[in-house]
Design brief:
mainly alpha, 20 helices, 399 residues
């Protein structure tokens, strides 16, 4: 399929850039002389820029199509990818990460837009999960392979290799990305008017809390705190940290394929999302309550968290039928804004919690336990609100 050929490598790199800092955290903090708050802010810059771009991206997809939306923004991202390996401090690193976030912002949404416009609704979740599954190779690259490359060549040189790959991804998008057929113009065609129509859809508000926090919590743990937790609390070395992160990433990849297949076959989007998020809340609560300091149980917890934590495309598949075709770009990018904006919020808040715990003299185990407990409570509350959503628009009308 042309959309896969055009955007797969770009999406692989988008997944990589939202999570690679965890594996390089110790090296980057030592090299730049920064703490957990600055590292979290650097990672958050990617998510903030990515989230902020969702509104113009949604409008541009509906108005101009994916080709004229994706290619210019990917070019901007190329500047950030080239700048990051040379960043001397957190400020320049954050600027580079923000530019990379701009470049990554339209990639997945551009693909989802094509899927939504060119394929039947029951195929949407499967295709989205298929792209997410293959794209999750970026998670794998950002674990043991990145750790090995940083060990062998240095983290800056490893990131230069990624800059070359990003250039290849941009070239593939130029060559292969095509627009779907144009729709006839409909009312509410402006960016704000279309968003207003989406926001006035009452059922969407029941999705908002879980959209804000479900993906955010998983990506924060995988992207920032797996390696520091395993080092400070469990006492694992860099090689072992990378191996645990790799197992978590493999679990995330496997679940993307499995959940997408289940959704396309039986349409159990809501049931899967509910089960997965409740499982995550329980595991985080167990980590907080027990203060796990066993390498085996910590590894098992993070693998299960990874497996249960990729309800991203399943939630998108659940929400897709609530958006009319002429607003599908704005509807999905609004939700993506909340997914990614929530990640920026959770990453910044988790970094603050870690630094506060250390400033108060808490042990590393107690500091991370408090963070895990806070995330568990937030996710549990969000999931209970999500339980009120109807499975489909047809069921909503009956209610």
């Amino acid at each position: 399929m042309q959309t896969f050929a055009a955007l797969l490598l770009a999406y692989v790199l988008s997944i990589f850039f939202r999570s690679f800092l965890s594996v390089l955290a110790t090296r980057i903090m030592a090299d730049m002389g920064i703490g957990a708050t600055e590292l979290a802010a650097m990672s958050s810059a990617w998510f903030i820029a990515f989230a902020a771009m969702q509104f113009p991206v949604g409008w541009a997809l509906d108005s101009h199509g994916p080709r004229r939306t994706v290619l210019p923004l990917m070019a901007v991202g190329g500047i950030g990818v080239a700048l990051f390996p040379f960043a001397p401090n957190a400020l320049v690193g954050s600027l580079a990460m923000g530019l990379i976030g701009v470049g990554c912002a339209p990639v997945f949404m551009g693909a989802l837009y094509v899927f939504a416009r060119n394929h039947a609704a029951h195929r949407f979740g499967f295709l989205a999960s298929l792209l997410l599954g293959f794209g999750s190779i970026g998670n794998l690259i950002g674990t043991t392979p990145l750790s090995w490359a940083a060990e062998a060549f240095g983290w800056r040189q490893a990131m230069m290799i990624l800059a070359v790959l990003y250039g290849v991804a941009l070239l593939m998008a130029v060559l292969f990305l095509k627009d779907p057929p144009q729709l006839a113009r409909q009312a509410g065609g402006g960016m704000l008017g279309g968003l207003g129509q989406v926001i006035r859809t009452r059922v969407i508000w029941f999705f908002v809390p879980v959209v804000l926090f479900s993906y955010a919590i998983t990506v924060t743990l995988r992207g920032l705190w797996v390696a520091p937790y395993l080092e400070k609390v469990i006492g694992l070395d860099l090689k072992a940290q990378g191996e645990v992160a790799l197992m978590m990433a493999v679990a995330m990849t496997a679940s993307a394929f499995l959940f997408g297949w289940i959704e396309s076959r039986w349409g159990w989007a809501k049931a899967q999302a509910l089960t997965g998020n409740l499982a995550i809340a329980v595991i985080l609560g167990a980590l907080a309550w027990s203060g796990v300091q066993s390498a085996f149980w910590a590894t098992a917890a993070f693998v299960v968290l990874g497996f249960c934590g990729f309800s991203y495309t399943i939630l998108m598949a659940h929400m897709r039928p609530f958006f009319p075709d002429h607003l599908v770009g704005r509807g999905m990018t609004l939700m993506n804004f909340l997914f990614i904006g929530g990640a920026a919020l959770v990453q910044t808040g988790s970094g603050w919690l870690i630094d506060q715990g250390r400033a108060q003299g808490l042990s590393e185990a107690a500091t991370f336990a408090r963070m895990h407990g806070a995330l568990a409570l937030v996710l549990l509350a969000a999931t209970l609100v999500y339980a009120l959503t109807p499975p489909s628009p047809r069921r909503a009308r009956r209610a």
